[in-house]
Amino acid sequence: MALTKHSRITLNDGHKIPVVGLGTYAPDEVPKSQAEEAVKVALEVGYQHIDSAFIYGNEVEVGRAINAKITDGTVKREDVFYTSKLWSTYHTPELVHSCLVKSLKNLQLDYVDLYLIHIPIEFKPGEDLPPTDESGKEIYHNTDIRDTWKAMEDCKEAGLVKSIGVSNFNHKQLELILNMPGLRYKPVCNQVECHLFLNQSKLLEFCKSHDIILEAYGVLGSTRDVNWYETMYYFQVETFTHSL
């Protein structure tokens, strides 16, 4: 089947996610206004999936762009699939709802389409992002990720999110959720870095076996840490395309 701007994949809860989306993460030195303009242009040219997160610090601008394009008739709210993420200082169950509400207020939206646990690591609750001690080391916390997931399920049942999932989880961390007693909703997706230097083939097979979508970010590679991949290997474009 040929891919178009309307192509979507059905998640395990019945909702559908566009196959291509615009991620809005940017380093701190990039003005937040650029996220607003990027989202406006993306929606104008046909993007239907916009991805951001509480920790990105740009949901006010992203929400402003989405609402502007709804107001001028470019899109309808139901045409836009919006993903946000729970930050790690809010893993304590009673804080999950408050993080989501802050995102919704910043976005000026009534719901998000997909809400993810951003990383499977919890930091000490508080306003510092992330919290650090006197020596500059990050301060961690120890909430059971399964309790965090129960609070995510509550957010779904409250109608604040349509689908819930995770990000940056390995298969053992996913199993903690999948095997938990009283599971109401399993993750619809696991969003991870995935590209030619990090193909995630084993994790992909695990996710497929549990009807969980493996959603890729950094698909053209990541430049944040040059030690993350092996620089001695490279791909010759002609050779690679001939093998497809």
CATH superfamily: NADP-dependent oxidoreductase domain
> What is the total domain count?
1
Reported for the largest beta sheet, the result is: 7 strands, parallel
CATH topology: TIM Barrel
**Rounded average pLDDT:** 91
Structural class of the helices, strands and pairings?
alpha/beta
Pfam families: Aldo_ket_red
Organism: Engystomops pustulosus
GO molecular function, one term: oxidoreductase activity
Domain NADP-dependent oxidoreductase: 20-233
How do you describe this structure in short?
By secondary structure, the protein is of the alpha/beta class. It has a single domain (8-243), classed as TIM Barrel. The chain has helices at 32-45, 59-71, 93-107, 145-157, 171-178, 201-209, 237-243; strands at 8-10, 16-18, 22-23, 49-51, 81-86, 112-117, 161-167, 189-193, 213-217.
Would you mind describing this structure in some detail?
Mean pLDDT is 91; it is low at 239-244. Strand 5, helix 3 (93-107) and strand 6 (112-117) form a beta-alpha-beta unit. This protein has a single domain, classed as NADP-dependent oxidoreductase domain (TIM Barrel, Alpha-Beta Barrel). The strands form 2 sheets. Strands 3-4-5-6-7-8-9 form a 7-stranded parallel sheet. It has a two-stranded antiparallel sheet with strand order 1-2. It has helices at 32-45, 59-71, 93-107, 145-157, 171-178, 201-209, 237-243; strands at residues 8-10, 16-18, 22-23, 49-51, 81-86, 112-117, 161-167, 189-193, 213-217. Helix content is 32%, strand content 16%. By secondary structure, it is α/β, with parallel strands linked by helices. Substrate binds at residue 118. The record marks 85 as: Lowers pKa of active site Tyr.
